[in-house]
Amino acid sequence: MPSAIEIPYGCYWSTPFARWQGAFAGLHAVEFAAHVTKLELARRAIDPTLFDYGVLGLSVPQKHAFYGLPWLTGMIGADRLTGPTIAQACATGVRTVLTAAQEIASGMAETALVVTADRTSNGPHLYYPNPLGPGGTGAHEDWVFDNFGHDPFTTKSMLVTAENVAAKLGLDTARQHALVLKRQEQYAMATANDGAFLKRFMTLPFEVPAPTFKKTVKTLDGDEGVTISTAEGLARLKPVLPGGTVTFGCQTHPADANAGIVVASEGRARELSRDPKIAVRLLAFGQARVEPAHMPEAPAPAAKAALTRAGLAIADIDVIKLHDPFTANDFAFADAMGIAVESFNDYGSSLMWGHPQSPMAARGIIEVIEQLAMRGGGRGLFSGCAAGDSAMAVVLEVVDRGRGARHPESGRSARA
Q1: Do 201 and 44 touch, CB atoms closer than 8 A?
Q2: All residues at 6 or more sequence positions from 125 whose CB lies less than 8 Å from its CB, including other chains
Q3: If you ran DSSP here, which 8-state letter would residue 254 be given?
Q4: CA distance 203 to 80
Q5: d(CA 154, CA 390)
Q6: Residue 393's beta-bridge partner residues?
Q7: Residues 6+ apart with CB under 8 A from 220
Q8: 321 in helix, strand or coil?
């Protein structure tokens, strides 16, 4: 990926993540994303008509989603802007950023708007007609929970993939619960000082609109529905599957949210950046698919592919953010990369925030950028698994544009 493709510093945002059936449960995901995008662009004094390409990431269908990205851009005041709507389950956030970067690299665009949105609450119940079926009846499914619980290729649930990896690594419940408490400590860094870290990319307090978007019905001070665990409380939990190790405590929860990222050429990024001296450069992407029913193992080979394309090693990376719907993901990644499991996911991860599908990876990328900016620059990696035992990863760097210098500690790692 050419270094001239950037994310203008500060030109990204995320709503809080709200628990399933929580504050965002009654909001249409695409309309809500348009509402937030319009407000966030205005806060950054970005004219929506500036964009010449757009990408919408949406993995849970919503009414009228057939119209996808053009509908969203019409609602934000950019009714001549077009582009695709992409669904790749949990990898959607990375895929949408890559799609925008490829459009710019091809010379077909200069400034791209990436919006990711999903609502797992009140997901659609779909009916597939079949006139040749018994009595002329068709098939049906609950889009969210039926697919979480059944991969049609392997016939296994996502929970089974976690158990398979836990068994391969010899993980017991106690060790997984200990990591939950560690991730909880790391997430507390994000909420400390009145949510100072979150406020770097979230508008807080966040005003939750009514479905008509004409009034505010409540406010959120941060992510909604985060479970605060104790060692004693976790110890009382039993594995979900008989004979297994994974409890409800060491897996994430479904959520609702949206997030946006601007991707641009170097020149346009300078113009839009909150601080023109800071460059956020996209270096490389990677993807992988692993042994069937072993989904938590996929982020490591995806990360290795991205690192290889960037000409880097894991020791060259200063900030790592991993999507961890199960603690097994973190253990598998640490084992494959040869690093300590406690050494990544500072300021939290999806294990704590919750999992609204496509916005999850977008938020992860945003948090990597802000962590690097806080430390004065450096290189970062985000990787996350997705349905079908697959994963996508991205490597980026934050540098002082004037000096081209990275953080003085870049390239040194305490992750052994």
Answers
A1: no
A2: 140, 141, 142, 143
A3: B
A4: 28
A5: 13
A6: 286, 383
A7: 16, 18, 23, 204, 205, 206, 208
A8: strand
- The CA angle 351-336-159, to the nearest 5 degrees, is 40
Q: Which two tokens stand for residue 248?
A: 């409800």
Task: Please give the helix or strand (H or E) that residue 390 lies within, else none.
Answer: strand 390-400
CA pair distance 207, 122, nearest whole angstrom: 21
Cβ–Cβ under 8 Å, residues 119 and 29: yes
Q: Which of 61-65, 95-99, 410-414 has the lowest mean pLDDT?
A: 410-414
Question: Integer distance in angstroms from the first to the last C-alpha of the chain?
Answer: 28
Q: Strands, DSSP E only, in 90-242?
A: 111-119, 125-128, 139-142, 206-209, 216-220
Shortest CA distance to 297 belongs to which of 152, 98, 164? 164
Structure tokens at 96: 């949408």
Beta-strand relationship, 378-386 and 390-400 = antiparallel
Which of 364, 271, 369 shows the shortest CA–CA distance to 50? 271
Classify 22 as helix, strand or coil: coil
Whole-Å CA distances, 11 to 28, 37, 43, 51, 360: 24, 11, 10, 13, 17
Closest to 364 in 3D by CA, of 93, 23, 74: 93
Residues whose CB is less than 8 angstroms from the CB of residue 299 and which lie 6 or more positions away in sequence, other chains included: 288, 322, 323, 329, 332, 333, 383, 384, 385, 391, 393
pTM for the predicted model, two decimal places: 0.95
Give the Cα separation of 282 and 306 in Å (integer): 11
> What is residue 1's predicted lDDT score, i.e. its pLDDT?
55
Confidence of residue 402 (pLDDT cuts 50, 70, 90): confident
Q: Are 190 and 348 in contact (CB under 8 A)?
A: yes
Tokens of 368: 């990597």
